[in-house]
Write the structure tokens for this entry.
Amino acid sequence: MTHEQPQQTGTARTTRQQPPEVVRRLRAQIAANARLAKEDPVQVTAPARAAFLGKFEREADPDGTLPPEERARRADCLRRAHMQRLALRSVQARRARAAGERAA
């Protein structure tokens, strides 16, 4: 008796499970590092940096009425405050994690 192989429909990707999050993340990191090895990282990340810094400028001067120097100064203060909030949250998370480890 011969067994026939069932015909596959679609691509092999649709018949397999998607990779777990860890594998997906590692593949993305490999691709990013391979790209950065061939291209200038400053140029590759320039659009993202511009968008990130532009967010603070729009927040500092939503109507666009301030002089450019004042808008830049205020945006810089907002960016610094944002980074300090991140640092504070990091300290709080580390303390909470350490307290949890001592309790266990």
